[in-house]
Design brief:
The chain is an all-alpha fold. Helices cover about 75% and strands about 0% of the residues. It contains five helices and no strands. Helix 1 runs antiparallel to helix 3, helix 2 packs across helix 5 and helix 3 runs antiparallel to helix 4.
Amino acid sequence: MKMSEELEAQFIKQINREYESSFLYRQLAIEMEVRDLPGMASWLRAQSAEELTHADRLITHLTDRDNHPVIGDITIPSIKVEKIEDVFEIALDAERAVSEGVRDLYRQAEDERDLDSRPTIDWFISEQVEEEATVSEILGRLRIVDGDGSGVLRIDAELASSNI
């Protein structure tokens, strides 16, 4: 069943948020690469790739319902990284923004009683809870080590092996 133009527009907004998030994560990965933290860079690149799969999942939902997704203007904020914690604070803020977009999508689908969107949206709600928790944990651990080199290197190594 084709969805309304309004709901389609809300899905397209979310698709663009996922692309923006992907590019932001990629820039954050670059920030870690230039600081010789390959584990963090690798983890951030993986997050970037995951955001692209999220966009694809939304696109597939739209095309499966005979809607027409269109990628809009993609913008990412300029970022300033002075310390490693900044990277994960930026990532957490971005995840929170994506989560709010998913909640907006949910509200629109609920208002329209579009039951066909529920499984897709419910998956994204669960995914965002996990994403925010993971980034929050990394940030919390970085705050605990408070710039201590050995602590930062340990977290970097754990992220390289995806233990967080």
